[in-house]
Amino acid sequence: MRIRRLKLSGFKSFVEPSELRIEPGLTGVVGPNGCGKSNLLEAIRWVMGENSPKSMRSGGMDDVIFAGTASRPPRDFAEVVLQGNSGDGEELEVVRRIERGAGSAYRVNGRDVRAKDVALTFADAATGAHSPALVSQGKIAQVIAAKPAERRMMLEEAAGIAGLHVRRRDAEGKLRQTEANLARLEDLMAGLD
Ligand code: ATP
Fold first, then answer.
1. Which CATH superfamily is domain 2-129 in?
2. pLDDT digits (tens, 9 = 90+) for 95-122
């Protein structure tokens, strides 16, 4: 997929609504230490569904919301909008918003969706919160030291088939449920004889 625009509001150090256009070619983000460069990468991961405190350098879910400074009060929500084109060239707009103490909600192209749908959308576009294309500090050493199974996951993601694993787990769950229903039905029918 291609990301064209990123909008942040109340996300970590980006307290004011901020918009970044990502042009074709190489994009570099420069600035002094602590100015928020890594927070941008985390915003991309977060809108893709990331919750892990380690990836987000945070403790709880609400820690991505601007926490306030000596001169500014904290915000009570954070929102990240990612606009781009999905793998097959379709326009894609994904929004994730979190309210303090109330959890987060997602929208894809204006429709309310579940976190799972967002993960599938990005997996089908051959990317996602754990994509090796999102290279944070220390990531290169991690890729070199990756175990074969982890390398395979990276290849599967690049090939755009990562979403199939989720669908397979879903289908297996439904199959087990149906088998249990059938067994129960057979018990009931035996009782009627
Ligand atoms: P470096 O070059 O040192 O890695 P960086 O430019 O990548 O720095 P980040 O690590 O992205 O900077 O930004 C860190 C800044 O974000 C810190 O100043 C930190 O106080 C601020 N920050 C992180 N979370 C929040 C939050 N919830 N509310 C307010 N500020 C936050």
1. P-loop containing nucleotide triphosphate hydrolases (3.40.50.300)
2. 999 999 999 999 999 999 999 899 888 8
Contact residues of ligand 1, CB 6 A cut-off: 12-13, 31, 33-39, 63, 65-67
Positions in the chain whose pLDDT score sits under 50? none
Q: What number does the ligand 1 atom closest to the CA of 42 have?
A: 11
Residue 10 Cα to ligand 1 middle (Å): 13
Mutate to test the pocket of ligand 1, among 37, 39, 45, 139 (most ligand atoms within 8 A of CB): 39
Tell which residue, 116, 122, 124, 117, has the closest CA to residue 160. Answer: 124
User: What's the CA gap between 58 and 137, in Å, rounded?
Assistant: 16
Residue 46: φ, ψ to 5°: -65, -45
Per-residue pLDDT, 130: 75
